Amino acid sequence: MQKQVEIRMHENHLDPSPLPEESMCGGFCDKIMKNLILVLTVLGVIIGSVAGILLRYASPLPADVIMVIAFPGDILMRMLKMVILPLIISSLITGLAGLDAKSSGRLGTRAMVYYMSTTIIAAVLGVILVLLIHPGNPKLKANLGEGKKNDEVSSLDAFFDLIRNLFPENLVQACFQQIQTVTNKVEVGPPPNPNRFGRNATKSAAKYVIKKSLQFKSGMNVLGLIGFFVAFGICMGKMGERAKLMLEFFNVLNEIVMKLVGMIMCAGTLPVTFRCLEENLGIDKRVTRFVLPVGATINMDGTALYEAVAAIFIAQMNGIELDPGQIVTVSLTATLASVGAASIPSAGLVTMLLILTAVGLPTQDISLLVAVDWLLDRFRTSVNVVGDSYGAGIVYHLSKDELDLFDAQQIRPDDFEMAKTQSFFENNSNHGVYASHNSYQPVQIDDCKVTLASNGSPADFSLVEEEPWIRE
């Protein structure tokens, strides 16, 4: 039969003694130590900015001095690149393996709808703003030199490269190389005509034929790795208990990598975003570990906005009026180019070639943006991170009921009853609580007075751990 348990809190538990007030200096020092990484980061930015301004007016520094100054930053970037691969692998697998196929499918659909919607909105917003503000002036370009001419990029080739990289033929090779279509000019023409003295009498005009080939370039194929490990995590989730040991391994790996990244650089965008969303906002880890790594690769709202603005800015600098069809082309191409942009600094300059080629603008004018791209890249990254964070929150809000239902199905009936009892007790800790209990396991209750109510005759006693209850 069911037992009725009355739980009352001791007075000293309900009314804790006030803590001694800390001095103002001690509280300030505690806040500084708690946010030490942030304080040091701000100090580093200030010191680096001041030192850079002062060294700019100094005489040209020797190459060895510049190398010594850049050496710590180079080591830091190499360490961050080292943990990208295990971070993507562990976060995706642990996030998706904890879901069933239906939940993961809905989660992915909602995330992709959000990604594409916000990217298109960002590109359209950039087009509207640049047309209204009209920052480009052809007179300014007359004072600038000609930039370096870049190879033209076909929109179709870029799209096919995106699909090819999504399905890598070699998973190990995808860790450090990705495929790219390369355009080469091959000289073709009639062979030279030798004269009677064995020398060329005339030299025919050279003719060139454009040939395309697939080549591998250095750089991690993040899109291909994400595609594989998303499928891997879903398959692990469908295997259930048979994949339990493997899932525990990747859970431990994910925790180790997150701590390692935090030790290397707490200002890294992805690990900090993980921590803020999971610890501060309470978003489910299964959502963040799927949405954030994928969003960091294909949800480039800041990049889409920048590329749309930059393309029309270059047209304005050249005095070219774009028709409505070309403006639509810029918006769509900026959306697709931002999806395929690599998660590396100044990746927007590379994908800008695709947009300029699509609307017939001079590609060498990218040099107009190089001088300020280092600053714009910081703003683009901020917009990208904020977009990913909002996406995780929206997807979690839409999927919360499904995740709760999935969790409830995984919990045993007894455990589920105890979970409800504990939640009810926590919400009513200031007065007596009556809860039904059907389990025969020992009950651990700290600093509480437990009263067993049987047949209306309560028996008061205080203890920390009860013996197993006996069915009457």
UniProtKB/TrEMBL annotation:
Q: How does it sit in the membrane?
A: Multi-pass membrane protein
Keyword list, A-Z: Glycoprotein, Membrane, Symport, Transmembrane, Transmembrane helix, Transport
What are the record's GO terms for cellular component? plasma membrane
Q: Which Gene Ontology terms cover its molecular function?
A: glutamate:sodium symporter activity; L-glutamate transmembrane transporter activity; neutral L-amino acid transmembrane transporter activity
Compartments (UniProt record): Membrane
- Residues crossing the lipid bilayer are 36-59, 79-99, 111-133, 218-237, 249-270
> What is a single Pfam family found in this protein's UniProt entry?
SDF
A single Gene Ontology biological process assigned to it is: L-aspartate transmembrane transport
Sequence similarity: Belongs to the dicarboxylate/amino acid:cation symporter (DAACS) (TC 2.A.23) family.
Q: What name goes with this protein?
A: Amino acid transporter
Give the organism, scientific name.
Answer: Cyprinus carpio carpio
